Amino acid sequence: MKRLFPYLLYALLTLFIMFPLYKPGYIFLLDFVFGPKIKLPDLTYGIPAGMPITLFIKFLSLFISTQVIQKILLTLALILPPIFIYKLAGKYLPASWATVSGLFYMLNPYVYERFLAGHVMILLGYAFFPLLIAAFLDFLKKPAGNNFWHLTILFSIYPMINLHWAYMAGLVLVSFFLLNEITGKRLLSHTRFASRILRLLLFTITFLLVNSFWLVNIFSIKSPVSFISPEDYVAYAPLKDETYGVFVNVLSQYGFWLQDYPSPKFFLKEWPFLTILTLILSAAGTLTLIKRKDFSGIGFSLIFFSALFLAVGYSHPFTKIPVKFLFDYLPGYKGLRETGKLIGILSFTYALFAPMGASSLTRFFLKIVRKSLRRFYQAGCITVISLIPILSVNNIFWGFSNQIKPYDYPSSWYRANDILKKENNINNVLFFPWHLYPTLDFAGYVRAASPATVFFDAKIINSQSLDNPFLLEKETGPLNDKIFKLLHGFEGMDENMRFFQDSGITHIILAKISDFDRYNFLISSKMPENIYESGELAVYRINQ
Prior knowledge:
This protein has helices spanning about 5-20, 50-60, 65-90, 95-105, 110-115, 120-140, 145-160, 165-185, 195-210, 210-215, 230-235, 245-250, 270-290, 295-310, 315-330, 345-365, 375-390, 395-400, 410-420, 450-455, 480-485, 495-500, 520-525; strands at about 25, 405, 430, 440, 445, 460, 505-510, 530-535, 535-540. The protein is an alpha/beta fold and about 550 residues long. Strands 6-3-7-9-8 form a five-stranded mixed sheet. A two-stranded antiparallel sheet has the order 1-2. The protein has a two-stranded antiparallel ribbon with strand order 4-5. Strand 8 (about 530-535) and strand 9 (about 535-540) form a beta hairpin.
């Protein structure tokens, strides 16, 4: 039963968070919107790294409702992080303190903000990171046999789970190797040079073969990475705390660039003290490893501070300099775009070292406690330290304090989809309102990715506008320019029918959400034929 306790605890906590979300309906989050069917991604810019996962989910959707699949993925994003770091922490700590490590990795502002942003694949990448580190540490101790292939296979499939975390993990592994060389530790020095080169070649070849389907994209001028500019780093820079600034905010694992939901710190004024206590305990854990002459203590300390500076990024003039340098000269680094993802490295370090420090301090004071009380004393210390992660995300339970709920699409959306399927010569369908992240009136007025592309069977042309002032220059093109003129009354719909026909647009959907009342140019026009209208949306046909 003791062996099962950590897993049961994490399962119960996940259930306590997710239970209200298991009701029928879809969960509409910023970047995680599902529809009745799983659509394959646009391959205009090549095959994405996550394509195998998408294909697997699409296969599951043949047997399981997409509502259920969505909730399974959300559940996995919560329960896997504590399970996987528990296994890693068990290499350093007794089971009781390793269980606390799982709580730190599961219940923190990074998970809180990423979950509400719908960054499920980022959280799954975050979840698998401790497994990769464990495999890497095993490899350093014994490079031959299963340890080598375990590390090689795990790292090779990692980009399919989340490319950003795979890239960050790659930087971490390289840093550890460099640290070995600088400190003279040379953990692999007992192996022959030829054997080390052979393993490196096998590792590289395996990685390239497994990931060749998406790696070819990075050499294309149409690669998504090629469109990323410094303006993206400004637009997605971590937010500052109004009182304590950006460094304290990032150290506290906050900083996501968009704040649509109340942060847990708004309900606990003493939240900086939790950060200070976590830092003290983590420092104690690091010193414990250093005393044991375990090089990972120094390694993760250096990685912690590097991740801190890089995560702050463009939010501070001092940290902007190294980030700009890496953006210009380190291959692939610009693909991170939002440096706040690196806060997950801080969360990992806290989860591993804070319980380690607490365990060391507990043992230090255990000597002055009477033998009859030692068991209660240790249990009390574990309980008190466990309160740190729980308090840090005090409103995460019960559906994030009912901030998110399941909703279904309006019945008129299903009716409109049936009508479009029966239309002749249907090509591209233009969807209004023209926002990538509209406010969804039918889903509790949440702001989420436009659901049209995942709901309607037809090919949807949807806005890519982020409504971000730093990225306005990127939102150009004939269609964007035309809609801008229509929205601002410079031109009318009827006089532009030829433009839409030449653009291959055969139908228009106007969903009555967000600021749909601005689209009077369509409502009052005579040329597009209104073929269906309800209280939630209208469908127009552009006669060719």
